[in-house]
Structure formats: structure tokens, C-alpha cells
Fold:
Amino acid sequence: MIDLRSDTFTLPSKEMMETIMTAELGDDVWEEDPTVKKLEALAAEKLGKEAGLLVSSGTQGNLVAEMTHLNRGDGVVLETESHINLYEVGGLSQIAGAYPFLIKGQNGMMNPQEAEAIFTRAYNVHYVEPKLLCIENTHNRGGGKVIPQENIDTLAKIAHDNGASVHMDGARVFNAAVASGTPASRIVREADSVQICLSKGLGCPIGSVIVGTEDFIHQSRKNRKVVGGGMRQAGIIAAPGIFALNNMIERLAEDHVHAKIIEKALLEIPNLKVKDVDSNIVIADLTGTKWTTEGVIEAFKKKGILVLKIPGIQPMIRLVTYFGITREDTEKVVEVIPEIFN
Structure:
């Protein structure tokens, strides 16, 4: 099977797995795992921040960051279709105790004027006060959209000028960096904290890292413990992460090429709407066509290809390229697309 449902299906390379066997280990809750410390320092360096913290997942990383930035009852400004809003089980509210101010973006990109209207609303005893802005880059449901740097910087300035912090859900921020040619450290410069996933395009079996100031990470370490994220000999997770940050970033460009090839093939199908592909995610909208998502997914499956149905009102499918999806796989997908949409 060619599995294009998500880049979370990435499998680690033999070289990456071998790093686990030689990793120097210690108790990370006691801050005594040298391999974890090395990963955290490397992630912070790559993103231009002071310190890092290993967490088990992107969802946990976002939640821990939210808990550190916020007091219960504070408000958070975020895009309606962001991962934090749709796919993290409402942890923002049920655990961090925060209230979401939602902005409907354009492929994940928020309008600064709408954000400013929320942040500058006059004080009223009845109102929740916004204390955090969350930006997702690249944006998953936006079709792997790379959020323009000007938009990020403008939004961050609005938040900071009004006494709020900025968190970037950078699960795929290295895809954004490779696709835009902008260093990741520049992309996240105005963010007070960032979460990066190791287990998507970077190919690790598990793990994410959050980065920020030393004080932020010191506080986040305790919040990680609150949500059960304290790990012991976590160097077995960190070692593949070190390998990934040193060896797997530039090769993301290959995934982007494969996604563009698939996009081109889908664009040749009459009436099929395809979001502009920036990185490794291809989203096709079947609205106005004779096909159903279930029918298309089943047709792909019969050809040995797995694609994902995107929940929502519009009938949409998603195809994601990643390490392990070869040029040969991509060409097979392109070959069967006209047969499926006939």
C-alpha cells in the first residue's frame, strides 16, 4: 500500500533507528538524560530560542505551552480550522481553562484587522481578555499553507502591543522553512514559544519539542509533569530527534516536489478543486463533481493507495507526501488518478 493519509505514517530510517542503540541515557524528570539535553539545546538553536523541552506529542506540546502562557479564564485568538481548535480534544478549554476567540482564515491565514479588533476591545467586566495568539505554520487544513512572514509578523506585533504572548504551532515549521527559503529561526522570531513535531516529515517514531526562553521552559517543565509528560530514559526518543534535525530537514524539498506532481495530475480533472500546494499536503475538494469522498477513497484503495477523508461540510480528500513515499510511488498515484476520476 502507498499510504498518503498523513506524514505521521513516516517510518524511521535504519540510520535513525541505530541512534537509539547507542544513546546515552539518564532520568529526564531529574534532568539527567544527556541525549535529551542535547536534543533540546539543538532544537532551541535551530529556532533561535534560549531553551527547549522534549514532549511526547505535538498536542501535548501545544497544551503545555498554553498552560504556561495562560491563567484560567484567559482568552486565546486562533484560526477556526487550526489543529489546536479542531484536533486536540478541546484541551485548550478543558485543561488549560482558556476561552477561544476564533477567526475564520483564508487557508489558515488570519486577517490582522480581525485579530486587532479582538485584542483592542475596550475593557468590560463581562469580557474575556485575550492573552495569547496561536499561529499554525504550515497550516494543515489550509492544505499545507505556508503562512506569509508579513502576516505572522503583523499578527505578532498586534498581540505583543496589547500585552499578549504568541505561540506557534510549528508542527511542520521546517516544511515552511524549506518551501519558502526562509530560515526557521526567522519564521518563528516573533513567537514567544514554538512547538515542532519530530514525528511527521522529519521521520522520527515519536516526540515533539517546545522552545522558548529559559524561564518559559522552566515553567513548562512543571506543566509537562502535570499532564503526565515526565519521561525517564527519554534519550531513546531524543536520539532519533537529533538525527532528524541534523539530517532530515533539507530533504523535505523532495516531499514538496512529489506533492506538486500529484497536484498537477489532480488539476487536470474537470471541476475538481485543488488547494494551491505549498509544501507536502494536497487537498482536493469534490464539491460540484459527481464523485463522493467515500467512493474516491475506496477507488484509491482498490489501486493500492490510501488517502484521507477530511471531516467537514465540503467533501474533501487529503494526500500527504513524506519520507518513504518515493518518486516511483508518486508516479503510480499520478497514473491511477485519471482512472479513478473517469
Notes: The radius of gyration is 20 Å. The longest strand covers residues 130-136. The chain has a mean pLDDT of 97. The CA atoms of residues 175 and 279 lie 6 Å apart.
